[in-house]
Amino acid sequence: MIISTCGFGSTGSSAVSDYILECDDVQVFDNIEFTIASIPDGLSDLEYHLLKCHMRLSSSIYAIQRFRKLIASSSREWCSNTSITKNQINEITNNFLKEIIQLRFIGYSPAISKKYNQFWRHYWGESMMLHRIIPALERAKIIKKNFDFFPLEEVEVSINPQNFYKAAINYTQNLLVAMGCDFSKKIVLDQAFSGDNPVSSFPFYKDPYAVVVDRDPRDLYIFAKKFLLSRGRFMPTDSVENFITYYRILRDNQPYKIKNIRVLVINFEDLVYDYDNASSKIDTFLGLRNNRRRTIFKPEISVANTNLIRKYPELKKDIEEIERRLPEYLFHFEKYKTINDAGEMFYGKSPLNK
Questions:
Q1: What is the rounded distance in angstroms from the CA atom of residue 202 to the CA atom of residue 272?
Q2: Which residues contact 91 (CB under 8 A, 6 or more apart)?
Q3: What is the dihedral of CA 330, 334, 338, 341, to 10 degrees?
Q4: Is the distance from CB of 223 to CB of 7 less than 8 angstroms?
């Protein structure tokens, strides 16, 4: 079983990972955010261009090139934080692409020209080399057969490969094994799926399950604005209006809300304030047996990261606007007993639980 905790950025998915870490039959592999499926140019993009786009060849050619470039750029982090080596990454990736690529030849494609800057592409690539210099050499019989030099290179083509999903599942599993994952246990990955649409990444994993963790918009706004600062610039906090728009469009009518037996949606606040009920839901959903509850994830500590307006009353006006505009996403703190104000907000490997 491949499990991934996922969210919307600082919404508390690490708290669920810490809770699951208390289970003996599970390996929580959070050395890296394993986003290979959902990241731009990753497996989902490759799936679209090879299987769903149905456009001219350059779409699939360019997608394969971008995928190779993405893996090359990811290699440094993977090698630094896991047991995998660059040679292993190259071998596993080449084997995957070898399975799904249907044709290789030395040639030219508009997709290839995208690799070069504007001046080089138009004046040396297409105009000068292809349309002037090389034809002149051919007419002078200096070039007497097909040439294989710039701007030509190896072109890799794959259109609707029937074995794509099987090969992709083997690919992610081989990478994870090389990184140190023990598949005799349930594997928990960090951010392997996108929080708003986890199901879109399921075809690339064997037996996938997602725990989507969300957070009260008031606390997320304050946490980003007052504590994360530059680290929270992936969301807008320059104005409460922009934040409200951002929060809503990530969630309204998104696929994660569609009922699915492989997706559990839970609020960070539920795990803090209604611990017994929330933890039981996680155990049942994932088939876990947690005999060490509260040893790693401690709701009495993480509670300091909730109902933050208590600590920042100067944001009262902004919070009132969030309450007015996002009422369906609010956690009802008033239903629970008053909490201790003495705790501190935490940020690090597990930003909402330390």
A1: 29
A2: none
A3: 30
A4: no
**Cα-flanking dihedrals φ and ψ of residue 200, to 5°?**
-65, -20
Separation CA 225–CA 205 (nearest Å): 36
Three-class SS of 140-160: CCCCCCCCCCCCCEEEEECCC
CB 243 within 8 A of CB 320: no
Q: Count, in order, helices (H) and strands (E) of the chain.
A: 14, 7
**Residue 49 amino acid letter:** H
* Residues 238 and 317: beta-carbon distance below 8 Å: no
| Pairwise CA distance, residues 69 & 64, whole Å | 9
Q: Quote the pTM value.
A: 0.87
How many Å apart are CA 288 and CA 29, to the nearest integer?
16
| DSSP E strand stretches across 257-352 | 263-267
Per-residue CA distances from 175 to 27, 36, 199, 214 (Å) = 16, 10, 21, 29
Amino acid at 312: Y
**CA–CA distance from 234 to each of 9, 140, 225, 255 (Å)?**
8, 58, 11, 21
Over the stretch 314-331, which tens digit does the pLDDT of each residue have? 999 999 999 999 999 999
How many residues does the structure list for the chain?
354
CB 304 within 8 A of CB 311: no
How would you write the pLDDT of the chain (354 residues) with one tens digit per residue? 999 999 999 999 999 999 999 999 899 999 999 999 999 999 999 999 999 987 767 788 889 999 999 999 999 999 999 999 999 999 999 999 999 999 998 877 666 555 555 545 544 555 566 666 667 766 666 666 665 555 677 889 999 999 999 999 999 999 999 999 999 999 999 999 999 999 999 999 999 999 999 999 999 999 999 998 888 889 999 999 999 999 999 999 999 999 999 999 999 999 999 999 999 999 999 999 998 999 999 999 999 999 999 999 999 999 999 999 999 999 999 888 765 655 555 544 444 443
Q: Which residues pair with 105 in a beta bridge?
A: 155
